């Protein structure tokens, strides 16, 4: 059985690593912020003091990091992954980063006689906890076949996207749709609230008609309870939309809806909701219409 190294124990990484442990894999973990590994240690994980120590102890290294700069630190920094990578290792990055950086990692890891897959995920925190994530994977098909069961321990679907960088490109395109969907849902709710429509009735209608979406399904109970605890944060969505905007410019692809919605999330960020769930974008609409868009106000989430 492969020895797994897991770097990045945040909202997504911690439950992903936990599912590997529950499936019987030996897992060595590392997080840049101390104190995040306690529950994983109870499940049997070992904890490393550096990312290099994780690479040295592992056949497969998985990273789940928040942004490009942090990925560069983990891979290229002092005691980084690249400095301790063993020939024959497989590195899987499930972060959402720029395709250009993913392609650079493919090249630099290949130079170490190891293999790399860019394999970001979709499904947010609930799917990470239940082991039902979807992986979109860029890289060599034979390498993917080698680690298929490892990814399967954390997800329900693994979709090959093409050569190196394709997983990252697909993720930015996917999250563009997600960000637009949530903004569209909230805008519709603002119209309904302004017209005196009950929020629960309106959301039931949305899920029963042509406006139905996975985001409406996930966010309906949170919006009705005004629970803005993080499944996927507004700040991370804004980061992804910024990356998608840069990518679309590189690809010379017009994205007028993306640019408008990116501005909405920038407003939410400026209002102080970066660390809340992306559905906290609701607060921007509530300011504009001067009333709540759901029936409950003043609860703990406020």
Please characterize this protein's 3D structure.
There is one protein chain. The strands form 2 sheets. This protein has a 6-stranded parallel beta sheet, sandwiched between helices. The chain has helices spanning about 15-20, 40, 50-55, 70-75, 80-85, 100-110, 125-130, 140-150, 165-195, 200-210, 215-225, 235-250, 255-270, 280-290; strands at about 5, 25-30, 45, 60-65, 90-95, 115-120, 120, 135-140, 155-160. With about 300 residues, the protein is an alpha/beta fold. The longest helix is centred in the middle third of the chain and has 29 residues, at about 165-195. The termini are far apart. This is NAD(P)-dependent oxidoreductase. Belongs to the HIBADH-related family. InterPro entries: 3-OH-isobutyrate_DH-rel_CS, 6-PGluconate_DH-like_C_sf, 6PGD_dom2, 6PGDH_NADP-bd, HIBADH-like_NADP-bd, HIBADH-related, NAD(P)-bd_dom_sf.
Distinctive features:
N-(1-d-carboxylethyl)-l-norvaline Dehydrogenase, domain 2, NAD(P)-dependent oxidoreductase, Rossmann fold, 302 residues, 2 domains, 3-stranded mixed beta sheet, alpha/beta, 6PGD_dom2
Q: Please state the average pLDDT score.
A: 95
| CATH homologous superfamily annotation of the largest domain | NAD(P)-binding Rossmann-like Domain
Q: Tell me the total number of β-strands.
A: 9
Shape: globular
Which segments are poorly predicted (pLDDT under 50) over 5 or more consecutive residues? 297-302
User: Going across the major beta sheet, what is the strand order?
Assistant: 3-2-1-4-5-6
Question: What is the percentage of strand-forming residues?
Answer: 5-15%
Number of helices: 14
Q: Separation of termini?
A: 47 Å
Q: Rg, please? A: 20 Å
Q: Largest sheet, described in full?
A: 6 strands, parallel
Count of the separate structural domains: 2
Kindly state the percentage of residues in helix: 40-55%
- The level 1 CATH classification of the largest domain is Alpha Beta
CATH architecture of the largest domain: 3-Layer(aba) Sandwich
Specify the structural class.
Answer: alpha/beta
CATH topology of the largest domain: Rossmann fold
Strand and helix order = EHEHEHEHHEHEEHEHEHHHHHH
């Amino acid at each position: 059985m492969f020895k797994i190294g897991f770097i990045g124990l945040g909202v997504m990484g911690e439950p992903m690593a936990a599912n590997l442990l529950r499936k019987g894999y030996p897992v060595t973990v590392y997080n840049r912020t101390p104190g995040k590994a306690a529950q994983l240690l109870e499940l049997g994980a070992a904890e490393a003091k550096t990312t290099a120590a994780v690479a040295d102890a592992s056949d497969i290294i998985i990273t789940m990091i928040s942004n490009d700069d942090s990925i560069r630190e983990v891979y290229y920094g002092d005691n980084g992954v690249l400095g301790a990578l063993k020939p024959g290792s497989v590195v899987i990055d499930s972060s959402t980063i720029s395709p250009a950086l993913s392609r650079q990692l493919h090249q630099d890891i290949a130079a170490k006689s190891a293999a790399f897959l860019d394999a970001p995920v979709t499904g947010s925190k609930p799917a990470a906890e239940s082991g039902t994530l979807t992986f979109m994977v860029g890289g060599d098909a034979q390498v993917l076949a080698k680690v298929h069961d490892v990814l399967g321990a954390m997800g329900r679907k693994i979709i090959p996207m093409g050569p190196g960088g394709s997983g990252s490109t697909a993720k930015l395109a996917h999250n563009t749709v997600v960000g637009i969907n949530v903004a569209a849902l909230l805008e519709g709710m603002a119209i309904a609230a302004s017209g005196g429509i009950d929020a629960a009735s309106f959301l039931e209608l949305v899920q029963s008609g042509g406006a139905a979406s996975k985001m409406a399904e996930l966010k309906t109970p949170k919006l009705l309870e005004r629970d803005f605890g993080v499944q996927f944060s507004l700040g991370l969505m804004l980061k992804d939309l910024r990356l998608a905007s840069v990518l679309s410019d590189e690809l010379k692809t017009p994205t007028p809806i993306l640019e408008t919605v990116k501005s909405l999330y920038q407003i939410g960020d400026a209002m102080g909701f970066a660390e809340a769930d992306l559905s906290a974008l609701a607060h921007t609409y509530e300011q504009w219409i001067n009333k709540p868009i759901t029936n409950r106000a003043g609860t703990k989430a406020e």
